[in-house]
Amino acid sequence: MVNPDEASTVQVSCLRELGFAAHLSADGWSHSITLSDEQADAYHKAAYECSAQYPVRADIDRPIQGEEITMIYRHILHGFIPCAENLLGIQSIEEPSYTTYRRSIDYDGVVAIDRERMTDVLFPDLPYSLRLEDECSLLPEGFRDYQR
User: Fold this and answer.
1) What is the C-alpha end-to-end distance of the chain, expressed in Å?
2) pTM score, whole prediction
């Protein structure tokens, strides 16, 4: 069993061992991979095998709540946006309102992190790049570092 904050790192390592060039995001909470159509079935099988081999502890995986919600919003304003502006050479990325931010993480009343959805909702005009995902985290450093 792995802790939620380690799941993507373990998944990437497992996928690499199985021959896939998986790539961990800057915040360590997600990963990406570029596949050809011919690789899709083999990748899905490998991802399933890795998930079965290294299941995520469900006893501590929970929606974000309370101060965590505010902490992430503050980080987006004071960490992610300056990083993205610097990396992409953009002078001023519009700061999302708190209401827009909440909409990006609310799934029918359950608050959860989905980096792709957050980026799409918060910064619809921001050009996506793997480099941005690698270097500018949407989550604050150390977010949910779980004790063993």
Assistant:
1) 11
2) 0.57
